[in-house]
């Protein structure tokens, strides 16, 4: 009887203690991870330990993310929210997460990429696959991310590649499983660092291989040395007008080559600017160090000088006093 009572007591304590007891923690390489996966949560648990660096809340029933959802988790680097029902993300939700590097929002119900995510200063990987993105997917107003390395927009019902703008570090783009009709090298040209492009399962893409766009993209892919997942672009050697496509598409080919060169010089210039900045900082530092050392040297000299002066004055004053007493 007594045992039963204590068991009930323990159970009620466990229930009232709240969410943090349901999630499990693990630590490896000085990184604490909270695992809250598959627990039927309707909201992101907010009472977890505030020093977690990774939070996994996949396979829950979360429908929205709000300004307070992550307020206490300012050290988070990895956030996994795959397989929920997220359709709403409040402005400012990601503001506390300035350390965030990897975000997984795969298999949700989002229509746009949350602008706040692309603003994060350390973001490297963003998985948005298996959402139903609408129109431009929010990219038209998205800020340029200087740090993003991987973007997955696979299975997002895209008919057009969103306007991706300048992502100088983006090296992996996954746009497989969409309904893309065209993909032009002009759309991809701002992505200077692209190395992997997954275009598989876009059945509408290049239905007409006698198209200059096909030739251009194929040329761009070869010139940029891009590894693209398996499907060879099946461009025809001849255009619709039964002329040699190499000749017919020549002017546009030239353009793409130029864009690519512009793109590369942009990166070179950026690197130059960075090294210039570092040099500038170094010089400033050295100048300040010199000024400081000079200050120290002159300061001690001045101090010695003024000390002897005081001593002299004192002796002088003494002598004056002596004489006045006489
Ligand atoms: C957030 O963290 C602070 C300090 O670590 C703590 O006092 C506070 O209770 C936490 N808030 C929540 C909702 O857990
Ligand atoms: C959210 O932010 C965007 C862009 O900053 C702005 O256009 C929009 O009006 C904001 N929405 C709300 C509800 O504040
Ligand atoms: C692209 O995304 C799909 C769907 O998530 C995945 O199956 C595929 O492996 C990805 N491609 C690459 C190259 O990672
Ligand atoms: C490429 O072209 C060949 C010959 O025209 C055709 O048999 C093949 O199915 C095409 N492949 C694709 C992926 O369209
Ligand atoms: C297209 O060009 C390639 C190499 O230039 C050649 O091997 C291939 O036979 C050509 N195909 C057609 C259909 O002309
Ligand atoms: C094919 O011919 C038509 C009419 O002569 C012309 O308008 C079109 O630009 C040509 N297409 C190409 C790719 O040369």
Helix-strand topology string: HEEEEEEEHEEEHEHEHH
How much helical structure, as a percent, in the residues?
25-40%
Specify the CATH architecture. Answer: Alpha-Beta Horseshoe
Shape estimate: flat
Number of strands: 12
Beta fraction of the residues? 5-15%
**Major sheet strand order:** 1-2-3-5-7-8-9-10-11-12
Q: How far from one another are the termini?
A: 107 Å
What is the radius of gyration computed over CA atoms, rounded to a whole number of angstroms?
32 Å
- The CATH class: Alpha Beta
What is the number of helical segments per DSSP (H or I, 4+ residues)?
6
Mean pLDDT: 82
CATH topology: Leucine-rich repeat, LRR (right-handed beta-alpha superhelix)
Alpha-beta classification: alpha/beta
Which ligands, by name, code or SMILES, are bound?
2-acetamido-2-deoxy-beta-D-glucopyranose
Subcellular location: Cell membrane
Membrane topology: Single-pass membrane protein
Main location: membrane
Transmembrane segments: 281-298
Structural account:
The chain crosses the membrane at residues 281-298. GO terms for molecular function: potassium channel activator activity; transmembrane transporter binding; voltage-gated potassium channel activity. It is a single-pass membrane protein. By secondary structure, the protein is of the alpha/beta class. Residues 4-17 and 321-326 have low confidence and may be disordered. The strands form 2 sheets. It has a 10-stranded mixed sheet, with no helix packed on it. It has one domain (12-268): Ribonuclease Inhibitor (Leucine-rich repeat, LRR (right-handed beta-alpha superhelix)). The longest helix has 76 residues, at 250-325. Helix 4 crosses helix 6 (250-325). The chain contains 6 helices and 12 strands. The structure holds 2-acetamido-2-deoxy-beta-D-glucopyranose (NAG) (6 copies). The site of one 2-acetamido-2-deoxy-beta-D-glucopyranose has 5 residues, from loops.
């Amino acid at each position: 009887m007594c045992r039963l009572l204590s068991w009930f007591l323990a159970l009620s304590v466990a229930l009232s203690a709240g969410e943090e007891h349901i999630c499990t923690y693990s630590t490896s390489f000085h990184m604490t991870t909270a695992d809250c996966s598959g627990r039927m949560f309707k909201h992101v648990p907010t009472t977890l330990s505030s020093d977690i660096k990774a939070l996994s809340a996949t396979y829950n029933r979360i429908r929205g993310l709000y300004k307070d959802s992550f307020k206490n988790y300012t050290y988070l680097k990895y956030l996994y929210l795959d397989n929920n029902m997220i359709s709403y993300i409040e402005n400012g939700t990601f503001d506390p997460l300035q350390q965030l590097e990897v975000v997984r929002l795969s298999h949700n119900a989002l229509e746009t990429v949350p602008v706040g995510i692309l603003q994060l200063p350390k973001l490297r990987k963003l998985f948005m696959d298996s959402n139903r993105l609408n129109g431009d997917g929010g990219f038209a107003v998205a800020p340029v991310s200087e740090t993003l390395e991987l973007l997955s927009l696979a299975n997002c019902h895209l008919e057009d590649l969103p306007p991706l703008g300048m992502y100088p570090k983006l090296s992996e783009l996954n746009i497989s499983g969409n309904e893309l009709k065209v993909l032009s090298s002009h759309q991809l040209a701002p992505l200077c660092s692209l190395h992997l492009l997954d275009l598989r399962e876009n059945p509408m893409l290049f239905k007409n291989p006698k198209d200059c766009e096909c030739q251009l993209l194929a040329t761009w892919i070869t010139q940029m040395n891009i590894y693209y997942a398996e499907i060879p672009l099946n461009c025809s050697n001849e255009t619709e007008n039964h002329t040699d496509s190499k000749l017919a598409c020549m002017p546009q080919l030239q353009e793409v080559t130029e864009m690519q060169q512009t793109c590369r010089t942009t990166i070179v210039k950026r690197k130059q600017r960075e090294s210039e900045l570092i040099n500038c900082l170094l010089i400033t530092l050295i100048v300040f160090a010199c000024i400081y050392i000079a200050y120290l040297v002159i300061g001690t000299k001045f101090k010695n000088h003024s000390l002897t002066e005081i001593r002299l004055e004192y002796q002088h004053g003494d002598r004056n006093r002596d004489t006045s007493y006489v």
